[in-house]
Specification:
9-stranded mixed beta sheet; 265 residues; T-fold; two-stranded antiparallel ribbon; 24% strand; 11 strands; alpha+beta; globular
Length: 265
């Protein structure tokens, strides 16, 4: 990315989506407008707080599977796949109130938004979706994007800075929205984690993995397999970081981090 980036912020899905794009202002404006329109449409479709949403139609039994529109078919399929990939810890059907794919939908909607931005001819951009981040191409000034992983105890401190190109980062924890992530029925997490972070090609999958890792608690990395380009680490309440096998050596916290100790699984 060369030149001054164009920045936009969009309030949707109960949070703020921040866009940083390397493009002329008119191109950037069109790209963000297209992305924002789709994000709002997906919020209308999948918000559990909107009585007429697809989610609530499914909950009330008013929409048969044979009548699911394509976006719902895709989301349901991805939720089932992530349930299998996480040993059942991602469970869109075991949530209070019934079917709730929120642990995947924000990331999935962000991936859709990124595709729309790219379709407008923008190659270098970042989307911060309320703390989850998707980057494509180069950062301002060239080179990789630098994505900070927040210290769960301090809003303006980081425990790790990752340098990434064409990647997505999702972190789950209770420091933004309180205890909104629950374990599936019949399961107990034991000791709670402070946060769980997953990095990979798509934000939808990273989002669902992070949700499941946080819900599962300290034993989570026992079933996490760093396949398909996805890698993860968790922070316990003492900010001890546990890294999944196979994460890059430069992920280990350095002098610029908060000083939290770490270990590999």
């Amino acid at each position: 990315m060369t030149g001054r980036p164009v920045r936009h912020a969009v309030e949707v899905m109960g949070t703020v989506f921040s866009f940083c794009l390397a493009a002329p202002p008119d191109v950037a404006g069109r790209a963000v407008a297209a992305a924002a329109a789709d994000l709002r449409a997906m919020d209308d479709a999948f918000s559990p707080y909107r009585p007429g949403s697809l989610v609530n139609l499914v909950r009330r039994g008013e929409l048969a599977p044979s009548a699911y529109p394509p976006p719902l078919v895709e989301v349901v399929g991805r939720c089932r796949a992530m349930g299998a990939a996480t040993d059942g810890w991602f469970d869109a059907w075991g949530q209070p109130g019934g079917f709730d794919p929120s642990g995947l939908v924000k990331g999935w909607a962000t991936d859709r938004a990124a595709a729309l931005v790219h379709a407008e001819g923008v190659d270098d951009f970042a989307i911060n979706a309320g703390g989850d981040v998707l980057v494509r191409g180069s950062a301002p000034g060239g080179g990789p994007w630098r994505v900070g992983i927040r210290d769960p105890r301090a809003a303006h401190a980081v425990v790790l800075i990752l340098e990434l190109t064409d990647a997505a980062v999702a972190t789950s924890g209770s420091y933004e929205r309180g205890a909104h992530i629950v374990a599936p029925p019949g399961r107990s997490t034991g000791a709670a984690l402070a946060s769980a972070t997953v990095v990979g090609p798509e934000l939808a999958t990273a989002d669902a993995y992070a949700t499941a890792l946080y819900a599962a608690g300290p034993p989570a990395l026992a079933w996490f397999a760093p396949t398909g380009g996805y890698q993860a680490f968790t922070l316990d309440q003492r900010l001890v970081a546990t890294f999944a096998a196979g994460v890059p050596a430069d992920w280990l916290p350095g002098p610029a981090a908060s000083g939290a100790p770490s270990r590999r699984k």
